[in-house]
């Protein structure tokens, strides 16, 4: 026992001695420089799990564990930004965490406040080197003094370079998705107004239908104009949606062939459909028709209302401490092509040496799938083959024939 | 990398809640670690670029060459290491596959999971359709095997995710395939567990010929088929409906709460649509379509080389344990067998060993 303690002390002293320290830091720089040569993920998310367990197993206070966790974060941020990662998203505090002991919650809040306000003191340095700091989540749940520090830090860094640090502060993904839905609904419920300045399509079915309707009903003229405006507006929206769907189709080619083709269909026929509806509603609820059509909502629309709307898609999600769960983090974002990595290391111990294998594995996979999309590691139907659907149909017929 | 001395200073400052050092002190502490301002690609790039380029052209060139070299070297060694690990895993897998084989005997499977502390109440699997000719037949066979293993292990709910949704289009065939598979495990129809198969927006499928004789086996399995359309697309649909309601003034955006969304989204996977259940009601009055599914899966098995959700419905996997059966690429045949009994079993063991903590 005593010898091992002496040994660890000796090791610590050895590692802390200036020449070794310098050599290590040179080595780190070299490795990071080497990593830059390959493809680098644009957006990485971290779940910083294990601070409390680290504190417990090392016999220190929980708060101390969180402090060490912050140091680990600083270390890993340095690695990320130096190697070319654009956006780092960290899960700092879940809405569920408010259920923890008041002492711990207060300590965490205090830590966030101190860090953020300290950051704000170094305006000039931040401006030169800093990343954009954004705090995502339910800011209304924060204490006023913390909120003030948060806003100050976000304001100060809002003009910084292209690196972004997203801090999910009181955050859960379900809350985020709900918020996105709510905002979309609220936005679409804003009346467009009759002066929508979109280019008019020369003739639209709905327009004709309306005219006929108007002639029959001798409806009020201003009603008609407003309806026409909205109808042409919504038809251009439909076109937009169709174009968007096309894009999405290109991206998610094979996977959602069924779904997107139906939506595309809807968007395509929507013009006439809408016209009919508008014609039906013409007399009864004319104020109602000056809305954007809900049919133009797509997956992209919802994504645009998320907190991460400005960021590239998530490439890599890393969770430490061996818990293999998302815990309500980035549920929507982890959707398509994100690689999830669960590491069996506590967050305060997390360092370049744990991070490198993950990054290398990712690089390996990406460069392989770029070179040869059909190669191993990526044969899960991601790469669309034009014949795939036919083949499926064919084989399903075969199965039915069995 | 921060030197030990500076780290101690920094920690002292933290212990004193950031009062010990002034802003200027902290800046001095930080200075040695910041890159040289001239190295940064800053806003007015016209001016800077020139100076950088002129300063150390040879050194920069050598440096980038060195980095390139090291990158290549690292990847060569990493590739070798990965191969070694993969072959090691492959050997371990073979051994497991020999030691643990189900022999199509439910009792053996039950014995294998007997000592586990907990079993998932709702198991979910991600399968993928391959590109071979008989891909669908293979996929159906995999689903049938998984169904048999799950019901033998005592897992009441199994949901199967396959991205393209091809399984949903042939539910009757799938039902037949599974029943056939179950009969190889359990024998005659009276010994077979009850099977309920449905997909979101589809009624529970029960074939015509199902007679209502007494079953000697009281186990039951509810299977849910999911596809990419049940993921984000469902949220889009929900948003559309809500928008329509809001535009008609039937709902205010503030009414949209997490609970509402949860209830709506959960309903889709827990309650089969009641629309056309006549067939089911005809065959068994009073006993049909009462399906209760726990919407959140406890365990998600990913039968893929690495962990990727691939469009899995996002809402319900918040507390789901994920397990990836991993490395199973057979370089000889091109396609490894992904769905294997030992992989299934390892997933269950892993689940039983993991400790559950709510709220992180």
From TrEMBL, chain A:
<dbReference type="InterPro" id="IPR001441">
    <property type="entry name" value="UPP_synth-like"/>
</dbReference>
<feature type="region of interest" description="Disordered">
    <location>
        <begin position="217"/>
        <end position="242"/>
    </location>
</feature>
<dbReference type="InterPro" id="IPR018520">
    <property type="entry name" value="UPP_synth-like_CS"/>
</dbReference>
<dbReference type="InterPro" id="IPR036424">
    <property type="entry name" value="UPP_synth-like_sf"/>
</dbReference>
<dbReference type="GO" id="GO:1904423">
    <property type="term" value="C:dehydrodolichyl diphosphate synthase complex"/>
</dbReference>
<feature type="compositionally biased region" description="Acidic residues">
    <location>
        <begin position="375"/>
        <end position="388"/>
    </location>
</feature>
<feature type="region of interest" description="Disordered">
    <location>
        <begin position="262"/>
        <end position="295"/>
    </location>
</feature>
<dbReference type="GO" id="GO:0005811">
    <property type="term" value="C:lipid droplet"/>
</dbReference>
<protein>
    <submittedName>
        <fullName>Putative undecaprenyl diphosphate synthase-domain-containing protein</fullName>
    </submittedName>
</protein>
<feature type="compositionally biased region" description="Polar residues">
    <location>
        <begin position="279"/>
        <end position="295"/>
    </location>
</feature>
<dbReference type="GO" id="GO:0045547">
    <property type="term" value="F:ditrans,polycis-polyprenyl diphosphate synthase [(2E,6E)-farnesyl diphosphate specific] activity"/>
</dbReference>
<dbReference type="Pfam" id="PF01255">
    <property type="entry name" value="Prenyltransf"/>
</dbReference>
<comment type="similarity">
    <text>Belongs to the UPP synthase family.</text>
</comment>
<feature type="compositionally biased region" description="Polar residues">
    <location>
        <begin position="227"/>
        <end position="236"/>
    </location>
</feature>
<dbReference type="GO" id="GO:0016020">
    <property type="term" value="C:membrane"/>
</dbReference>
<keyword id="KW-0808">Transferase</keyword>
<dbReference type="GO" id="GO:0005783">
    <property type="term" value="C:endoplasmic reticulum"/>
</dbReference>
<dbReference type="GO" id="GO:0016094">
    <property type="term" value="P:polyprenol biosynthetic process"/>
</dbReference>
<feature type="region of interest" description="Disordered">
    <location>
        <begin position="370"/>
        <end position="402"/>
    </location>
</feature>
UniProtKB/TrEMBL annotation, chain B:
<comment type="pathway">
    <text>Protein modification; protein glycosylation.</text>
</comment>
<protein>
    <recommendedName>
        <fullName>ditrans,polycis-polyprenyl diphosphate synthase [(2E,6E)-farnesyldiphosphate specific]</fullName>
        <ecNumber>2.5.1.87</ecNumber>
    </recommendedName>
</protein>
<keyword id="KW-1133">Transmembrane helix</keyword>
<comment type="similarity">
    <text>Belongs to the UPP synthase family.</text>
</comment>
<keyword id="KW-0472">Membrane</keyword>
<keyword id="KW-0808">Transferase</keyword>
<dbReference type="GO" id="GO:0045547">
    <property type="term" value="F:ditrans,polycis-polyprenyl diphosphate synthase [(2E,6E)-farnesyl diphosphate specific] activity"/>
</dbReference>
<dbReference type="InterPro" id="IPR038887">
    <property type="entry name" value="Nus1/NgBR"/>
</dbReference>
<keyword id="KW-0812">Transmembrane</keyword>
<keyword id="KW-0460">Magnesium</keyword>
<dbReference type="InterPro" id="IPR036424">
    <property type="entry name" value="UPP_synth-like_sf"/>
</dbReference>
<dbReference type="GO" id="GO:1904423">
    <property type="term" value="C:dehydrodolichyl diphosphate synthase complex"/>
</dbReference>
<keyword id="KW-0256">Endoplasmic reticulum</keyword>
<dbReference type="GO" id="GO:0005789">
    <property type="term" value="C:endoplasmic reticulum membrane"/>
</dbReference>
């Amino acid at each position: 026992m005593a010898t091992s303690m002496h040994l660890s002390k000796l090791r610590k002293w050895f590692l802390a001695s200036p020449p070794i320290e310098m050599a290590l830091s040179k080595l780190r720089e070299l490795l990071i420089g080497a990593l830059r040569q390959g493809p680098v993920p644009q957006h990485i998310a971290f779940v910083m799990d294990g601070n409390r367990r680290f504190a417990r197993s090392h016999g220190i206070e929980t708060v101390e564990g969180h402090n060490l966790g912050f140091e680990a974060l600083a270390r890993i941020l340095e690695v990320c930004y130096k190697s070319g990662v654009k956006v780092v998203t960290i899960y700092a505090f879940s809405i569920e965490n408010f259920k923890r002991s008041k002492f711990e919650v207060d300590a965490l809040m205090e830590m966030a406040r101190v860090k953020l306000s300290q950051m704000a003191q170094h305006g000039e340095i931040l401006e030169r080197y800093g990343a954009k700091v954004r705090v995502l989540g339910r800011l209304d749940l924060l204490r006023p003094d913390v909120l003030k520090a948060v806003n100050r830090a976000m304001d100060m860094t809002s003009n910084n370079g292209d690196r972004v640090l997203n801090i999910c502060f009181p955050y859960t993904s379900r809350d985020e998705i709900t918020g996105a839905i709510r905002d979309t609904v609220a936005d679409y419920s804003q009346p467009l107004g009759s002066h929508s300045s979109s280019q008019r399509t020369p003739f639209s079915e709905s327009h004709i239908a309306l005219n006929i309707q108007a002639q029959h009903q001798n409806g009020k003229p201003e009603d008609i104009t407003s309806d026409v405006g909205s109808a042409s507006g919504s038809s251009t929206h439909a076109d937009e949606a169709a174009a968007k769907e096309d894009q999405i189709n290109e991206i998610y080619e094979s996977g959602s062939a069924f779904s997107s083709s139906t939506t595309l269909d809807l968007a395509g026929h929507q013009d006439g459909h809408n016209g009919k509806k508008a014609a039906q509603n013409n007399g009864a609820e004319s104020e109602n028709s000056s809305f954007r059509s809900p049919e133009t909502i797509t997956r992209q629309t919802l994504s645009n209302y998320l907190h991460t709307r400005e960021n590239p898609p998530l490439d890599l999600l890393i969770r430490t401490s061996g818990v293999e769960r998302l815990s309500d983090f980035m549920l929507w974002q982890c959707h398509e092509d994100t690689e999830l990595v669960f590491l069996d290391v506590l967050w305060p111990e997390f360092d370049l040496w744990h991070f490198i294998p993950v990054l290398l594995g990712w690089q390996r996979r990406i460069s392989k799938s770029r070179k040869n999309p059909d190669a191993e590691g990526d044969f899960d139907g991601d790469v669309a083959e034009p014949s795939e659907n036919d083949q499926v149909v064919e084989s399903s017929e075969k199965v039915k024939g069995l | 990398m921060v030197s030990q001395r500076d780290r101690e200073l920094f920690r002292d400052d933290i212990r004193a809640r950031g009062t010990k050092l002034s802003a200027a002190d902290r800046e001095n502490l930080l200075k040695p670690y910041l890159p040289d301002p001239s190295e940064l690609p800053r806003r007015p790039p016209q001016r800077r670029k020139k100076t950088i380029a002129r300063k150390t052209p040879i050194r920069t060139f050598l440096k980038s060459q060195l980095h390139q070299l090291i990158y290549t070297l690292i990847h060569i060694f990493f590739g070798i290491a990965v191969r070694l690990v993969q072959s090691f895993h492959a050997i371990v897998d073979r051994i497991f596959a020999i030691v643990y084989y189900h022999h199509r005997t439910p009792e053996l499977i039950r014995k294998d999971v007997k000592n586990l502390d907990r079993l998932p109440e709702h198991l979910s699997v991600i399968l993928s359709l391959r590109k071979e000719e008989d891909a669908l037949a293979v996929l159906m066979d995999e689903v049938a095997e998984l169904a048999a293993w799950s019901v033998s292990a005592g897992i009441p709910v199994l949901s199967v995710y396959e991205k393209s949704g091809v399984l949903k289009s042939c539910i009757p065939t799938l039902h037949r395939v599974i029943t056939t598979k179950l009969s190889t495990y359990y024998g005659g129809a009276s010994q077979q567990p009850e099977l309920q198969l449905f997909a979101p927006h589809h009624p529970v499928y029960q074939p015509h010929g199902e007679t209502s004789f007494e079953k000697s086996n009281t186990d039951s399995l509810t299977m849910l088929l999911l596809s990419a359309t049940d993921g984000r697309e469902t949220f889009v649909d929900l948003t559309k409906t809500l928008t329509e309601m809001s535009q008609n003034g039937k709902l205010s955006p503030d009414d949209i709460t997490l609970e509402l969304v949860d209830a709506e989204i959960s309903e889709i996977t827990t309650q089969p649509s009641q629309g056309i259940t006549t067939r089911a009601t005809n065959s068994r009055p009073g006993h049909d379509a009462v399906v209760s599914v726990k919407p959140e899966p406890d365990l998600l098995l990913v039968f893929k080389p690495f962990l990727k959700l691939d469009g899995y419905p996002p809402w319900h996997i918040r507390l789901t344990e994920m397990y990836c059966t991993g490395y199973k690429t057979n370089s000889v045949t091109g396609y490894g067998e992904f769905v294997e009994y030992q992989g299934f079993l390892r997933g269950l063991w892993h689940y039983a060993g993991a400790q559950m903590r709510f709220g992180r």
